[in-house]
Amino acid sequence: MYKILGFFPNKIAFYEEALLHKSSSKESKDGRYRNNERLEFLGDAILDAIIADITFKRFPTQNEGFLTNTRSKIVKRETLDKVASELGLHKLIISATHSRGSKNHILGNALEAFIGAVYLDQGYKKTLQFVENKIIKPYINIDKLAKKEVNFKSKLLEWSQKFRVTMSFELIENYTDRESNPIFQSQALLNGLSAGIGTGYSKKESQQQAAQMSLKKIKTDKTFVNDILALNKTEEADADTF
To answer: Which domain holds residue 62?
Structure first.
Protein backbone atom coordinates (compact mmCIF):
# COMPACT_ATOMS: atom_id res chain seq x y z
CA MET A 1 0.00 0.00 0.00
CA TYR A 2 2.83 2.41 0.87
CA LYS A 3 4.41 1.86 -2.56
CA ILE A 4 1.21 3.01 -4.27
CA LEU A 5 0.40 5.89 -1.92
CA GLY A 6 3.85 7.19 -1.02
CA PHE A 7 2.73 7.51 2.60
CA PHE A 8 1.33 5.38 5.41
CA PRO A 9 -2.49 5.65 5.70
CA ASN A 10 -4.14 6.72 8.93
CA LYS A 11 -7.23 4.58 8.41
CA ILE A 12 -6.65 1.51 6.29
CA ALA A 13 -10.39 0.69 6.26
CA PHE A 14 -11.02 3.46 3.72
CA TYR A 15 -8.62 1.87 1.26
CA GLU A 16 -9.93 -1.62 1.86
CA GLU A 17 -13.44 -0.42 1.00
CA ALA A 18 -12.11 1.40 -2.08
CA LEU A 19 -10.81 -1.90 -3.43
CA LEU A 20 -14.00 -3.86 -2.72
CA HIS A 21 -16.06 -4.25 -5.89
CA LYS A 22 -19.85 -4.46 -5.54
CA SER A 23 -19.77 -8.09 -6.71
CA SER A 24 -18.00 -8.90 -3.43
CA SER A 25 -20.02 -6.62 -1.12
CA LYS A 26 -19.66 -7.33 2.58
CA GLU A 27 -22.24 -6.60 5.25
CA SER A 28 -20.97 -4.29 7.98
CA LYS A 29 -22.03 -4.13 11.62
CA ASP A 30 -24.66 -1.48 10.85
CA GLY A 31 -26.30 -3.73 8.28
CA ARG A 32 -25.00 -1.79 5.28
CA TYR A 33 -23.37 -3.70 2.48
CA ARG A 34 -19.87 -2.30 1.98
CA ASN A 35 -18.38 -1.84 -1.47
CA ASN A 36 -16.54 0.92 -3.30
CA GLU A 37 -19.50 2.59 -5.03
CA ARG A 38 -19.92 5.43 -2.49
CA LEU A 39 -16.18 6.13 -2.48
CA GLU A 40 -16.20 6.04 -6.29
CA PHE A 41 -18.86 8.76 -6.26
CA LEU A 42 -16.76 10.88 -3.90
CA GLY A 43 -13.50 10.21 -5.72
CA ASP A 44 -15.04 11.13 -9.08
CA ALA A 45 -15.98 14.58 -7.73
CA ILE A 46 -12.64 15.10 -5.97
CA LEU A 47 -10.67 14.06 -9.06
CA ASP A 48 -12.68 16.46 -11.22
CA ALA A 49 -11.87 19.28 -8.80
CA ILE A 50 -8.17 18.41 -8.65
CA ILE A 51 -7.76 18.13 -12.43
CA ALA A 52 -9.64 21.43 -12.80
CA ASP A 53 -7.20 22.93 -10.28
CA ILE A 54 -4.18 21.57 -12.13
CA THR A 55 -5.29 22.53 -15.65
CA PHE A 56 -6.44 26.00 -14.53
CA LYS A 57 -2.94 26.76 -13.24
CA ARG A 58 -1.12 25.00 -16.08
CA PHE A 59 -2.94 26.80 -18.92
CA PRO A 60 -3.46 30.39 -17.66
CA THR A 61 -4.43 31.82 -21.07
CA GLN A 62 -6.84 29.12 -22.27
CA ASN A 63 -10.63 29.51 -22.22
CA GLU A 64 -13.21 27.49 -20.31
CA GLY A 65 -13.94 25.21 -23.25
CA PHE A 66 -10.29 24.18 -23.60
CA LEU A 67 -9.97 23.54 -19.85
CA THR A 68 -13.17 21.48 -19.78
CA ASN A 69 -12.07 19.35 -22.75
CA THR A 70 -8.60 18.80 -21.29
CA ARG A 71 -10.03 17.72 -17.96
CA SER A 72 -12.40 15.31 -19.73
CA LYS A 73 -9.51 13.69 -21.60
CA ILE A 74 -7.61 13.13 -18.36
CA VAL A 75 -10.50 11.66 -16.35
CA LYS A 76 -12.03 9.53 -19.12
CA ARG A 77 -12.50 5.88 -18.20
CA GLU A 78 -9.92 4.46 -20.61
CA THR A 79 -7.21 6.68 -19.10
CA LEU A 80 -8.17 5.82 -15.53
CA ASP A 81 -8.27 2.09 -16.33
CA LYS A 82 -4.72 2.26 -17.68
CA VAL A 83 -3.38 4.29 -14.75
CA ALA A 84 -5.03 1.95 -12.23
CA SER A 85 -3.32 -1.01 -13.89
CA GLU A 86 0.05 0.78 -13.90
CA LEU A 87 -0.35 1.53 -10.20
CA GLY A 88 -0.99 -2.15 -9.51
CA LEU A 89 -4.56 -1.79 -8.24
CA HIS A 90 -5.61 -4.79 -10.36
CA LYS A 91 -3.67 -6.99 -7.94
CA LEU A 92 -5.52 -5.61 -4.92
CA ILE A 93 -9.14 -5.33 -6.08
CA ILE A 94 -11.51 -7.84 -4.49
CA SER A 95 -14.05 -8.83 -7.09
CA ALA A 96 -16.26 -11.85 -7.76
CA THR A 97 -16.35 -11.12 -11.47
CA HIS A 98 -13.57 -12.34 -13.74
CA SER A 99 -13.98 -9.53 -16.26
CA ARG A 100 -11.85 -6.46 -15.70
CA GLY A 101 -11.80 -5.21 -19.27
CA SER A 102 -12.61 -1.82 -20.70
CA LYS A 103 -16.36 -2.45 -20.84
CA ASN A 104 -17.02 -2.51 -17.11
CA HIS A 105 -14.17 -0.19 -16.04
CA ILE A 106 -13.64 -1.93 -12.70
CA LEU A 107 -10.08 -0.61 -12.60
CA GLY A 108 -10.94 3.02 -13.33
CA ASN A 109 -13.84 2.94 -10.87
CA ALA A 110 -11.54 1.51 -8.19
CA LEU A 111 -9.00 4.27 -8.85
CA GLU A 112 -11.69 6.90 -8.29
CA ALA A 113 -12.75 5.13 -5.09
CA PHE A 114 -9.09 5.02 -4.04
CA ILE A 115 -8.82 8.78 -4.55
CA GLY A 116 -11.95 9.17 -2.43
CA ALA A 117 -10.25 7.12 0.28
CA VAL A 118 -7.14 9.31 0.17
CA TYR A 119 -9.34 12.40 0.52
CA LEU A 120 -11.17 11.03 3.57
CA ASP A 121 -7.93 9.83 5.13
CA GLN A 122 -5.62 12.74 4.33
CA GLY A 123 -7.64 15.74 3.12
CA TYR A 124 -7.61 17.72 -0.13
CA LYS A 125 -3.99 18.96 -0.12
CA LYS A 126 -2.53 15.46 0.30
CA THR A 127 -4.93 14.10 -2.33
CA LEU A 128 -3.80 16.78 -4.76
CA GLN A 129 -0.18 15.76 -4.14
CA PHE A 130 -1.07 12.09 -4.64
CA VAL A 131 -2.77 12.79 -7.98
CA GLU A 132 0.08 15.02 -9.17
CA ASN A 133 2.96 12.78 -8.05
CA LYS A 134 1.51 9.30 -8.46
CA ILE A 135 -0.86 9.72 -11.41
CA ILE A 136 -0.12 12.80 -13.54
CA LYS A 137 3.69 12.97 -13.53
CA PRO A 138 4.44 9.27 -14.15
CA TYR A 139 1.56 8.32 -16.45
CA ILE A 140 -0.14 11.35 -18.09
CA ASN A 141 1.40 13.89 -20.43
CA ILE A 142 -1.05 16.75 -19.97
CA ASP A 143 0.43 18.95 -22.70
CA LYS A 144 0.27 16.16 -25.27
CA LEU A 145 -3.18 15.09 -24.14
CA ALA A 146 -4.50 18.66 -24.31
CA LYS A 147 -3.65 18.82 -28.03
CA LYS A 148 -5.44 15.57 -28.78
CA GLU A 149 -8.89 16.17 -30.22
CA VAL A 150 -11.76 14.25 -28.65
CA ASN A 151 -14.94 14.12 -30.71
CA PHE A 152 -17.71 13.93 -28.12
CA LYS A 153 -20.38 14.09 -30.84
CA SER A 154 -18.98 10.91 -32.39
CA LYS A 155 -18.92 9.17 -29.02
CA LEU A 156 -22.52 10.20 -28.33
CA LEU A 157 -23.53 9.04 -31.81
CA GLU A 158 -21.89 5.65 -31.17
CA TRP A 159 -23.89 5.28 -27.95
CA SER A 160 -27.10 6.39 -29.69
CA GLN A 161 -26.66 3.92 -32.53
CA LYS A 162 -25.86 1.11 -30.13
CA PHE A 163 -29.14 1.62 -28.25
CA ARG A 164 -31.18 2.75 -31.29
CA VAL A 165 -31.68 6.25 -29.88
CA THR A 166 -32.38 9.25 -32.11
CA MET A 167 -29.77 11.98 -31.58
CA SER A 168 -30.09 15.60 -32.69
CA PHE A 169 -28.86 19.09 -31.77
CA GLU A 170 -30.88 22.26 -31.37
CA LEU A 171 -29.61 25.84 -31.21
CA ILE A 172 -31.13 27.43 -28.11
CA GLU A 173 -29.61 30.90 -28.19
CA ASN A 174 -27.13 33.03 -30.13
CA TYR A 175 -25.73 36.23 -28.58
CA THR A 176 -22.48 38.22 -28.23
CA ASP A 177 -20.18 38.66 -25.25
CA ARG A 178 -18.68 41.93 -23.97
CA GLU A 179 -16.05 41.88 -26.73
CA SER A 180 -18.76 41.34 -29.38
CA ASN A 181 -17.68 37.72 -29.97
CA PRO A 182 -20.56 35.47 -31.07
CA ILE A 183 -21.69 32.94 -28.46
CA PHE A 184 -23.76 29.88 -29.31
CA GLN A 185 -25.76 27.75 -26.91
CA SER A 186 -26.95 24.34 -28.11
CA GLN A 187 -28.64 21.35 -26.54
CA ALA A 188 -28.32 17.69 -27.40
CA LEU A 189 -31.57 15.76 -27.72
CA LEU A 190 -31.84 12.01 -27.25
CA ASN A 191 -35.18 10.64 -28.38
CA GLY A 192 -36.41 14.21 -28.06
CA LEU A 193 -35.28 14.60 -24.43
CA SER A 194 -32.77 17.30 -23.52
CA ALA A 195 -29.58 15.52 -22.47
CA GLY A 196 -27.04 18.32 -22.20
CA ILE A 197 -26.49 22.02 -22.94
CA GLY A 198 -23.25 23.46 -24.26
CA THR A 199 -21.86 26.92 -24.96
CA GLY A 200 -19.10 27.89 -27.40
CA TYR A 201 -17.76 30.44 -29.86
CA SER A 202 -19.16 28.36 -32.74
CA LYS A 203 -22.09 26.02 -33.27
CA LYS A 204 -19.65 23.12 -33.52
CA GLU A 205 -18.00 23.96 -30.20
CA SER A 206 -21.36 24.39 -28.45
CA GLN A 207 -22.55 21.03 -29.82
CA GLN A 208 -19.35 19.33 -28.68
CA GLN A 209 -19.92 20.76 -25.19
CA ALA A 210 -23.55 19.60 -25.24
CA ALA A 211 -22.47 16.11 -26.33
CA GLN A 212 -19.88 16.02 -23.56
CA MET A 213 -22.45 16.98 -20.93
CA SER A 214 -24.82 14.35 -22.35
CA LEU A 215 -22.20 11.62 -22.05
CA LYS A 216 -21.58 12.60 -18.43
CA LYS A 217 -25.31 12.50 -17.71
CA ILE A 218 -25.61 9.08 -19.33
CA LYS A 219 -22.80 7.88 -17.08
CA THR A 220 -24.23 9.27 -13.84
CA ASP A 221 -28.03 9.33 -14.24
CA LYS A 222 -29.50 5.84 -14.68
CA THR A 223 -33.07 7.14 -14.40
CA PHE A 224 -32.50 9.47 -17.34
CA VAL A 225 -31.07 6.63 -19.44
CA ASN A 226 -34.06 4.44 -18.58
CA ASP A 227 -36.43 7.26 -19.62
CA ILE A 228 -34.67 7.54 -22.98
CA LEU A 229 -34.73 3.81 -23.64
CA ALA A 230 -38.37 3.58 -22.55
CA LEU A 231 -39.26 5.89 -25.44
CA ASN A 232 -37.89 3.26 -27.83
CA LYS A 233 -40.42 0.77 -26.50
CA THR A 234 -43.22 3.33 -26.75
CA GLU A 235 -42.39 4.00 -30.40
CA GLU A 236 -42.29 0.28 -31.12
CA ALA A 237 -45.67 -0.20 -29.42
CA ASP A 238 -47.15 2.68 -31.45
CA ALA A 239 -45.81 1.17 -34.65
CA ASP A 240 -47.45 -2.16 -33.84
CA THR A 241 -50.87 -0.53 -33.67
CA PHE A 242 -50.80 0.42 -37.36
So the answer is: 2-147
- Cα Rg of the chain, angstroms: 20
- In sequence order, which ranges of 163-221 are alpha helices (DSSP H)? 203-220
Q: Averaged over 104-132, what is the pLDDT?
A: 94
Distance CA 183, CA 203 (A): 8
The answer to whether residue 240 scores a pLDDT higher than 90 is: no
Q: What CATH number is given to the structural domain containing 75?
A: 1.10.1520.10
Answer yes or no: is pLDDT of 86 > 50. Answer: yes
Catalytic residues: 44, 112
Check whether residue 92 and residue 143 sit in a common domain. Answer: yes
Domain boundary among 147, 164, 189: 147
- What pLDDT, on the 0 to 100 scale, is given for residue 125? 96
In single-letter form, the type of residue at position 16 comes to E
Please report the sign of the dihedral spanned by the C-alpha atoms of residue 17, residue 21, residue 24, residue 25. Answer: positive
Residue 226's domain is classified under what CATH number?
3.30.160.20
In this structure, what DSSP letter does residue 200 have?
E
pLDDT(28) > 90: no
